[in-house]
Specification:
The complex is a heterodimer of chains A (119) and B (165). Chain A has two domains: 64 residues, Winged helix-like DNA-binding domain superfamily/Winged helix DNA-binding domain (Arc Repressor Mutant, subunit A), CATH 1.10.10.10; 40 residues, no CATH class. Chain A is built from five helices and two strands, in the order H-H-H-H-E-E-H. In chain A, strands 1-2 form a two-stranded antiparallel sheet. The longest helix of chain A has 45 residues. Chain A starts with 8 loop residues before the first helix and ends with a helix. The C terminus of chain A is likely disordered. Chain B has one domain: START domain (Alpha-D-Glucose-1,6-Bisphosphate, Chain A, domain 4, 2-Layer Sandwich). Helix content of chain B is 27%, strand content 40%. Chain B has an eight-stranded antiparallel beta sheet. The longest helix of chain B has 29 residues. The chains are: A mainly alpha (119), B alpha+beta (165). The interface between A and B is medium-sized, with 29 and 41 residues.
Amino acid sequence: MSQTTRRDVFQAIADPTRRGILTLLTLQAMTPNALADHFDSSRQAVSKHVGILTECGLVTQQQTGREIYYHLNTQKIKEVDAWLEPFRKIWEGRFSQLDELLNNIKTNDHDRHTRNKDR
Amino acid sequence: MIDTQETRIVKDPSGKKLIVTRFFAAPLTKVWRAWTESRYLDEWWAPRPWKTQTKTMNFAPGGSWLYAMVGPDNETHWCRTDYQAVEPEKRFTGVGAFCDENGRLTDAIPSMQWDIRFTSTGDGTTVNVHLSFDNEASLEKIVQMGFKEGFTAAHGNLDELLARL
């Protein structure tokens, strides 16, 4: 399998600066300059991160008058939530079995132990 | 009666940690035993239709639990948890990893740090599972691996439902 550069939401949120940018954009659309003011890194560095976020589909750019504004694509952010879903299913499955087991330990701990040996 | 409790999963801002929280309607002593004795773990640890089969277990600091997760087609994944700190009926920590049947670790899959805390709350017990990884990429890999199992587990639940109809 060839190594390709990944451009998806997970790559987007893998970097702390990019997470910072996303957090700022949840509050309002921002110009490149206003955004860069929030970071110690250079404007070029911030703009490079915005570029990656754009390629990942998380940020869109809109021209308003002379200014460019960065907007957050909230729909895309939901993919992160969806990603956790299978993980949640495993734990929910596990835990409902544990509920059942706890219920059984409560009533007939001894019987259960004996029964297990026979399996 | 069994209530369906909500399982809360939160991703820590560091991006390297997942925190799973769940309430169980049972006293702390019982919940603790279910998490720390292999005969009980074998009954619930693997999401259905997978099964847990313990090979060896020594629940103590420095001890370990070697077990297999066996799938519906008998596919087998060996896992090992090395226990570190144990504070009875309060908390235990350890490192979980994939390995072969002799417990030799496989490097391909990142290991995870477990920190599990038990608290008596109301008429039951709250369990907090902290799952930490060396880096975000490892966390991502583990959760993605859950994809397959998650679907399998979901199907298991469906089977169960269908059988009852």
